[in-house]
Amino acid sequence: MTALERIEAVVSLHAALDRTVSPSERPFDEGALPPVTSEFVELPAPTPLPARDFPDILQARRSRYNPAAVALGAVELSNVLHHSLVSSPTAGGIRELTVLMVVTQPSDPLGVGVYRYAPDRAEAVRLGDVREHLRASLLQPEFVDVFPVLLFVVADAEAPLEKYAMRHYRTMHVDAGVLVQNLYLVTEAMGLVGCAIAGFTDARVASLLNLATTQLPVMAFALGRPG
Ligand SMILES: Cc1cc2nc3c(=O)[nH]c(=O)nc-3n(C[C@H](O)[C@H](O)[C@H](O)COP(=O)(O)O)c2cc1C
């Protein structure tokens, strides 16, 4: 198999698996999404994590469903993403994962919308209220009404499958799982609350986040301040 054939096979496998999940009955009108944009928002530089004992963090970590009804600051977001990503090992050291953020409660300098995280900045993908599309993408729409930010872990199948066999499709999900555990631990260390989310429709998330065909949504994580 050529690299291109491997990539195409994995993309169609991912889509076939997605079709085994019934999407939400809420309508998803792609034409009503805010337009795609390409603006940059500078993020605050990350700061060191609070000094807390690792055993305490590990034992305290939980999935939380009742955050405070307040926005998340850009400093907190920058810290969660920086510390979670830099400390995540990946198969072959390939950095195929990116994180996209859907901000539903604005906090300067991040207005509501969809952003792609880059180490020092957020690249706006769509600016505007996407809550109805987000609800229609999730199997538990209530996450949208309580959490100010939802993160999506996206795996780009192109780079790893140029190097590895199709079986690497599995490893991409292990990489995503490692990152999700770090998101949980860093969230806990920072005194924030979060919850992993696997219940979503890939096709709708891909439209919402304006993903390329080879960019596969693999996990989500809701993030907020404690209630
Ligand atoms: C890979 C993964 C996917 C998950 N997906 C969801 C989800 O879609 N919805 C949800 O409410 N919780 C989800 N969770 C949270 C689990 O339900 C939770 O971790 C589990 O019940 C154990 O609780 P704890 O995290 O508080 O220890 C997920 C957790 C993991 C690790």
From TrEMBL:
Residues in Nitroreductase domain copies: 84-225
Stored InterPro entries: Bacteriocin_Proc_Enz, Nitroreductase, Nitroreductase-like, SagB-type_dehydrogenase
PANTHER family: NITROREDUCTASE MJ1384-RELATED (PTHR43745)
Name of this chain's protein: SagB family peptide dehydrogenase
Lineage of source species: Bacteria, Bacillati, Actinomycetota, Actinomycetes, Mycobacteriales
